[in-house]
Design brief:
The chain is mainly β. About 0% of the residues lie in helices and about 70% in strands. It starts with 9 loop residues before the first strand and ends with a strand.
Protein backbone atom coordinates (compact mmCIF):
# COMPACT_ATOMS: atom_id res chain seq x y z
CA UNK A 1 0.00 0.00 0.00
CA UNK A 2 2.97 2.31 0.45
CA UNK A 3 3.35 2.86 -3.31
CA UNK A 4 0.24 5.02 -3.32
CA UNK A 5 2.13 7.87 -1.70
CA UNK A 6 4.92 7.91 -4.29
CA UNK A 7 2.77 8.73 -7.32
CA UNK A 8 2.52 12.26 -8.62
CA UNK A 9 -0.93 11.83 -10.24
CA UNK A 10 -4.11 10.16 -9.10
CA UNK A 11 -5.04 6.98 -10.96
CA UNK A 12 -8.60 5.70 -11.40
CA UNK A 13 -9.36 2.24 -12.78
CA UNK A 14 -12.84 1.48 -14.11
CA UNK A 15 -14.67 -1.83 -14.20
CA UNK A 16 -14.59 -1.77 -18.02
CA UNK A 17 -10.76 -1.84 -17.91
CA UNK A 18 -10.14 1.84 -18.71
CA UNK A 19 -7.65 3.85 -16.68
CA UNK A 20 -7.84 7.61 -16.04
CA UNK A 21 -4.84 9.59 -14.78
CA UNK A 22 -5.33 13.09 -13.43
CA UNK A 23 -6.12 15.07 -10.32
CA UNK A 24 -9.12 13.92 -8.28
CA UNK A 25 -11.07 16.94 -7.03
CA UNK A 26 -13.93 15.44 -5.01
CA UNK A 27 -16.76 12.95 -4.81
CA UNK A 28 -20.22 14.44 -4.56
CA UNK A 29 -23.68 13.15 -5.43
CA UNK A 30 -22.43 9.97 -7.06
CA UNK A 31 -19.89 11.59 -9.38
CA UNK A 32 -16.10 11.58 -9.06
CA UNK A 33 -14.70 14.84 -10.45
CA UNK A 34 -11.27 14.52 -12.08
CA UNK A 35 -9.12 17.15 -13.81
CA UNK A 36 -6.98 15.78 -16.64
CA UNK A 37 -4.32 17.34 -18.86
CA UNK A 38 -5.78 16.29 -22.21
CA UNK A 39 -9.52 15.81 -21.66
CA UNK A 40 -10.24 18.67 -19.28
CA UNK A 41 -12.57 18.05 -16.35
CA UNK A 42 -14.30 14.67 -16.25
CA UNK A 43 -17.19 13.35 -14.18
CA UNK A 44 -17.08 9.59 -13.57
CA UNK A 45 -20.02 7.73 -12.07
CA UNK A 46 -18.91 6.37 -8.68
CA UNK A 47 -20.38 2.91 -9.18
CA UNK A 48 -18.19 2.50 -12.31
CA UNK A 49 -14.94 2.96 -10.36
CA UNK A 50 -13.11 -0.30 -9.60
CA UNK A 51 -10.22 1.28 -7.64
CA UNK A 52 -8.18 4.45 -7.34
CA UNK A 53 -4.89 5.66 -5.92
CA UNK A 54 -4.23 9.13 -4.58
CA UNK A 55 -1.36 10.86 -2.81
CA UNK A 56 -3.69 13.37 -1.13
CA UNK A 57 -5.40 13.43 2.24
CA UNK A 58 -9.20 13.36 2.15
CA UNK A 59 -12.14 14.34 4.33
CA UNK A 60 -14.62 11.46 3.88
CA UNK A 61 -18.19 10.63 4.88
CA UNK A 62 -19.90 7.25 4.74
CA UNK A 63 -23.52 6.09 4.50
CA UNK A 64 -23.54 5.30 8.22
CA UNK A 65 -22.49 8.88 9.05
CA UNK A 66 -18.85 8.04 9.84
CA UNK A 67 -16.52 11.00 9.35
CA UNK A 68 -12.87 10.23 8.54
CA UNK A 69 -9.72 12.16 7.66
CA UNK A 70 -7.06 10.10 5.89
CA UNK A 71 -5.50 8.62 2.76
CA UNK A 72 -7.36 6.25 0.43
CA UNK A 73 -5.49 3.30 -1.13
CA UNK A 74 -6.61 0.19 -3.07
CA UNK A 75 -7.73 -3.05 -1.51
CA UNK A 76 -7.24 -6.59 -2.88
CA UNK A 77 -11.04 -6.67 -3.10
CA UNK A 78 -12.18 -4.76 -6.19
CA UNK A 79 -15.18 -3.16 -4.47
CA UNK A 80 -13.33 -2.02 -1.32
CA UNK A 81 -10.75 0.61 -0.30
CA UNK A 82 -8.43 1.06 2.65
CA UNK A 83 -8.66 4.37 4.49
CA UNK A 84 -5.49 5.20 6.44
CA UNK A 85 -6.65 7.50 9.24
CA UNK A 86 -4.10 8.22 11.96
CA UNK A 87 -2.85 4.88 13.24
CA UNK A 88 -5.89 3.01 11.90
CA UNK A 89 -6.39 1.19 8.60
CA UNK A 90 -10.11 0.92 7.84
CA UNK A 91 -11.36 -1.53 5.19
CA UNK A 92 -14.60 -0.26 3.67
CA UNK A 93 -16.87 -1.05 0.72
CA UNK A 94 -16.33 1.69 -1.86
CA UNK A 95 -20.03 2.42 -2.39
CA UNK A 96 -20.37 3.08 1.35
CA UNK A 97 -18.24 6.19 0.78
CA UNK A 98 -20.79 8.84 -0.25
CA UNK A 99 -18.71 12.01 -0.21
CA UNK A 100 -15.14 13.21 0.06
CA UNK A 101 -13.25 16.45 -0.44
CA UNK A 102 -9.56 17.18 -0.35
CA UNK A 103 -8.12 18.37 2.96
CA UNK A 104 -6.76 21.79 2.05
CA UNK A 105 -5.48 24.81 3.91
CA UNK A 106 -6.96 28.24 3.41
CA UNK A 107 -10.41 29.77 3.78
CA UNK A 108 -11.51 29.83 0.13
CA UNK A 109 -10.84 26.13 -0.50
CA UNK A 110 -13.47 25.18 2.12
CA UNK A 111 -16.18 27.61 1.03
CA UNK A 112 -19.07 27.37 -1.40
CA UNK A 113 -22.08 29.53 -2.00
CA UNK A 114 -24.52 31.12 -4.42
CA UNK A 115 -25.96 34.49 -5.43
CA UNK A 116 -29.43 34.78 -6.97
CA UNK A 117 -31.57 37.56 -8.48
CA UNK A 118 -35.12 37.59 -9.78
CA UNK A 119 -37.49 40.13 -11.37
CA UNK A 120 -41.07 39.96 -12.60
CA UNK A 121 -43.63 42.49 -13.87
CA UNK A 122 -47.35 42.10 -14.45
CA UNK A 123 -48.71 44.84 -16.72
CA UNK A 124 -52.36 44.05 -15.92
CA UNK A 125 -52.05 45.28 -12.33
CA UNK A 126 -48.67 47.10 -12.43
CA UNK A 127 -47.17 44.59 -10.01
CA UNK A 128 -43.37 44.54 -9.74
CA UNK A 129 -41.59 41.83 -7.76
CA UNK A 130 -37.86 41.81 -7.03
CA UNK A 131 -36.07 38.84 -5.45
CA UNK A 132 -32.49 38.66 -4.19
CA UNK A 133 -30.59 36.08 -2.16
CA UNK A 134 -27.11 34.96 -1.19
CA UNK A 135 -25.64 32.12 0.85
CA UNK A 136 -22.18 30.95 1.81
CA UNK A 137 -21.00 27.87 3.74
CA UNK A 138 -17.66 27.02 5.28
CA UNK A 139 -16.94 23.36 6.02
CA UNK A 140 -14.24 22.05 8.33
CA UNK A 141 -13.48 18.73 10.00
CA UNK A 142 -15.79 19.11 13.02
CA UNK A 143 -18.71 20.83 11.34
CA UNK A 144 -19.82 23.75 9.19
CA UNK A 145 -20.83 27.42 9.32
CA UNK A 146 -23.67 28.87 7.25
CA UNK A 147 -24.67 32.45 6.44
CA UNK A 148 -27.65 33.33 4.24
CA UNK A 149 -29.87 36.27 3.40
CA UNK A 150 -32.98 36.68 1.23
CA UNK A 151 -35.23 39.55 0.20
CA UNK A 152 -38.53 39.60 -1.73
CA UNK A 153 -40.34 42.90 -2.31
CA UNK A 154 -43.57 43.60 -4.19
CA UNK A 155 -44.58 47.05 -5.38
CA UNK A 156 -47.97 47.94 -6.84
CA UNK A 157 -49.66 51.25 -7.57
CA UNK A 158 -52.09 52.37 -4.83
CA UNK A 159 -51.18 49.34 -2.69
CA UNK A 160 -48.78 49.19 0.25
CA UNK A 161 -45.46 47.55 -0.54
CA UNK A 162 -45.00 43.99 0.72
CA UNK A 163 -41.55 43.06 1.97
CA UNK A 164 -40.15 39.76 3.20
CA UNK A 165 -36.52 39.71 4.36
CA UNK A 166 -34.44 37.32 6.43
CA UNK A 167 -30.84 36.96 7.55
CA UNK A 168 -29.53 33.89 9.38
CA UNK A 169 -26.27 32.51 10.75
CA UNK A 170 -25.79 28.98 12.07
CA UNK A 171 -23.01 26.73 13.29
CA UNK A 172 -23.32 22.93 13.09
CA UNK A 173 -21.10 20.41 14.83
CA UNK A 174 -20.82 16.77 13.80
CA UNK A 175 -21.48 14.30 16.61
CA UNK A 176 -21.22 10.52 16.61
CA UNK A 177 -22.67 8.78 13.58
CA UNK A 178 -25.31 10.82 11.77
CA UNK A 179 -26.08 13.09 14.72
CA UNK A 180 -25.46 16.83 14.61
CA UNK A 181 -26.01 19.75 17.00
CA UNK A 182 -25.88 23.48 16.49
CA UNK A 183 -26.85 27.02 17.37
CA UNK A 184 -28.28 29.78 15.21
CA UNK A 185 -29.20 33.46 15.28
CA UNK A 186 -31.11 35.56 12.79
CA UNK A 187 -33.62 38.26 11.99
CA UNK A 188 -36.64 38.39 9.70
CA UNK A 189 -39.38 40.73 8.49
CA UNK A 190 -42.68 40.08 6.73
CA UNK A 191 -45.06 43.03 6.27
CA UNK A 192 -47.84 40.76 4.92
CA UNK A 193 -47.95 39.06 8.34
CA UNK A 194 -47.68 42.37 10.18
CA UNK A 195 -44.19 41.49 11.40
CA UNK A 196 -41.80 44.44 11.44
CA UNK A 197 -38.88 42.55 13.00
CA UNK A 198 -38.27 39.17 14.61
CA UNK A 199 -34.87 38.65 16.26
CA UNK A 200 -34.22 35.03 17.11
CA UNK A 201 -31.70 32.66 18.65
CA UNK A 202 -31.98 28.89 18.84
CA UNK A 203 -30.28 25.67 19.81
CA UNK A 204 -31.02 22.39 18.08
CA UNK A 205 -30.06 18.78 17.48
CA UNK A 206 -30.79 16.48 14.59
CA UNK A 207 -30.14 13.30 12.66
CA UNK A 208 -29.34 12.68 8.99
CA UNK A 209 -32.18 10.29 8.19
CA UNK A 210 -30.98 9.89 4.61
CA UNK A 211 -27.40 10.29 3.43
CA UNK A 212 -26.72 8.91 -0.03
CA UNK A 213 -24.69 10.05 -3.00
CA UNK A 214 -27.49 12.27 -4.35
CA UNK A 215 -29.76 12.96 -1.38
CA UNK A 216 -29.58 13.96 2.25
CA UNK A 217 -32.43 14.58 4.65
CA UNK A 218 -31.83 16.22 8.04
CA UNK A 219 -34.55 16.11 10.70
CA UNK A 220 -33.86 18.48 13.60
CA UNK A 221 -35.63 20.11 16.50
CA UNK A 222 -34.91 22.50 19.33
CA UNK A 223 -35.86 25.62 21.26
CA UNK A 224 -36.00 29.18 19.92
CA UNK A 225 -36.17 32.51 21.75
CA UNK A 226 -37.74 35.45 19.88
CA UNK A 227 -38.02 39.19 20.24
CA UNK A 228 -40.89 40.30 17.99
CA UNK A 229 -42.07 43.78 16.94
CA UNK A 230 -45.17 44.26 14.82
CA UNK A 231 -46.10 47.21 12.62
CA UNK A 232 -48.43 48.60 15.28
CA UNK A 233 -45.51 49.03 17.70
CA UNK A 234 -46.30 46.01 19.90
CA UNK A 235 -43.24 44.14 21.18
CA UNK A 236 -43.00 40.81 22.95
CA UNK A 237 -40.47 38.20 24.02
CA UNK A 238 -41.53 34.60 23.51
CA UNK A 239 -40.18 31.06 23.46
CA UNK A 240 -41.03 28.32 20.98
CA UNK A 241 -40.12 24.71 20.32
CA UNK A 242 -39.65 23.78 16.69
CA UNK A 243 -39.22 20.89 14.28
CA UNK A 244 -37.47 21.23 10.92
CA UNK A 245 -36.96 18.86 8.02
CA UNK A 246 -34.44 19.78 5.33
CA UNK A 247 -34.36 17.68 2.17
CA UNK A 248 -31.70 18.28 -0.48
CA UNK A 249 -31.42 16.49 -3.81
CA UNK A 250 -28.60 17.35 -6.19
CA UNK A 251 -27.03 16.09 -9.37
CA UNK A 252 -23.49 17.12 -10.11
CA UNK A 253 -23.13 16.41 -13.83
CA UNK A 254 -24.01 19.11 -16.36
CA UNK A 255 -26.77 20.14 -16.48
CA UNK A 256 -26.83 20.15 -12.69
CA UNK A 257 -30.09 20.25 -10.73
CA UNK A 258 -30.55 21.37 -7.14
CA UNK A 259 -33.73 20.84 -5.11
CA UNK A 260 -34.01 22.10 -1.53
CA UNK A 261 -37.15 21.71 0.58
CA UNK A 262 -37.24 23.19 4.09
CA UNK A 263 -40.30 22.60 6.28
CA UNK A 264 -40.62 24.24 9.73
CA UNK A 265 -43.20 23.96 12.49
CA UNK A 266 -43.14 26.15 15.63
CA UNK A 267 -45.28 25.78 18.76
CA UNK A 268 -45.44 28.62 21.29
CA UNK A 269 -44.55 28.07 24.95
CA UNK A 270 -44.98 31.71 26.00
CA UNK A 271 -47.97 32.52 23.76
CA UNK A 272 -50.32 29.64 24.43
CA UNK A 273 -51.69 27.68 21.45
CA UNK A 274 -49.73 29.74 18.93
CA UNK A 275 -48.60 27.72 15.92
CA UNK A 276 -46.39 28.95 13.11
CA UNK A 277 -45.42 27.08 9.96
CA UNK A 278 -43.06 27.83 7.12
CA UNK A 279 -42.14 26.15 3.84
CA UNK A 280 -39.21 27.15 1.60
CA UNK A 281 -38.77 25.31 -1.70
CA UNK A 282 -36.07 26.04 -4.26
CA UNK A 283 -35.69 24.33 -7.64
CA UNK A 284 -32.63 25.16 -9.79
CA UNK A 285 -31.49 23.94 -13.19
CA UNK A 286 -28.11 24.68 -14.75
CA UNK A 287 -28.25 26.35 -18.18
CA UNK A 288 -24.60 27.44 -18.46
CA UNK A 289 -21.71 26.22 -16.30
CA UNK A 290 -22.45 27.36 -12.71
CA UNK A 291 -25.37 29.56 -13.91
CA UNK A 292 -28.84 28.36 -12.90
CA UNK A 293 -32.43 29.29 -13.64
CA UNK A 294 -34.81 28.49 -10.82
CA UNK A 295 -38.21 28.63 -9.23
CA UNK A 296 -38.65 29.54 -5.57
CA UNK A 297 -41.73 29.18 -3.38
CA UNK A 298 -42.35 30.09 0.23
CA UNK A 299 -45.36 29.94 2.53
CA UNK A 300 -45.62 31.37 6.06
CA UNK A 301 -48.52 30.89 8.47
CA UNK A 302 -49.15 32.42 11.92
CA UNK A 303 -52.19 31.26 13.90
CA UNK A 304 -51.94 34.11 16.46
CA UNK A 305 -50.38 37.33 15.15
CA UNK A 306 -49.14 39.84 17.73
CA UNK A 307 -51.98 42.29 17.01
CA UNK A 308 -54.51 39.70 18.22
CA UNK A 309 -56.22 39.47 14.83
CA UNK A 310 -57.18 36.35 12.85
CA UNK A 311 -54.65 33.87 11.52
CA UNK A 312 -52.49 35.14 8.65
CA UNK A 313 -50.91 33.32 5.73
CA UNK A 314 -48.44 34.63 3.15
CA UNK A 315 -47.10 32.78 0.12
CA UNK A 316 -45.23 33.74 -3.00
CA UNK A 317 -43.66 32.17 -6.12
CA UNK A 318 -40.77 33.74 -8.00
CA UNK A 319 -38.32 32.93 -10.78
CA UNK A 320 -34.60 33.49 -10.26
CA UNK A 321 -31.24 33.36 -11.96
CA UNK A 322 -28.33 32.31 -9.73
CA UNK A 323 -24.58 31.76 -9.84
CA UNK A 324 -22.82 29.19 -7.67
CA UNK A 325 -19.21 29.09 -6.55
Amino acid sequence: MGTAFGQKNDTIRLFNGDRVVGEIKDLELGLLRVKTDHMGELFIEWDQVASFRSTKQWDLRTRSGMHLIGYVVPSPLMDHQYILSGQDSIHIARLNIVQFTRVQKGLWARMDGSISLGFSYQQANNLVQITAGASVSYTYRKGSIHLSGNSISSEQKDVSDNIKQDLSFSWDRNLRGRWVAGVGVGAERNTELGLDLRQKGNIYGGNLLIQTTHTNDLLSGGVQQNREDNQAGISTDNTEVFLNNRLRIRTYKFPKTDITIDLYGYYGLTIADRFRAQADIKLRYEVVKDLFLGLEFYDQYDSRPLDGGPALNDYRISTTASYTF
